[in-house]
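Translate sequence into structure tokens.
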Amino acid sequence: MKSYHITVPRFEQGQKDDTHQTYSFELEDHLTFSILDGLEYIYQHLDPTLAFYHHAACLQAACGKCMVRANGKPVLACKQKLEPGGLLLEPFGKEVVKDLVAKT
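Result follows.
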């Protein structure tokens, strides 16, 4: 089993400051997940209130809507491999709508 720890800001409009929440989970060694797959796992198994962008075009790197900052580096969540260990995700955009969803 591989351990993953993903930290994301929890933010809603009208809120003064964002807070951060860390989600921890384990997956089988042979599975290869993208960051987007990790977010989907969190949404389905740990927290259905987590907001992130997932579109039908994801996994094709066509729309760019799933862009996030992963440990400070801009990446497409649908294409970037999820590595075991800790990961800080932040929204990519000028105006944060909620959690990882931002207007560009």
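Note: The chain has a mean pLDDT of 88.
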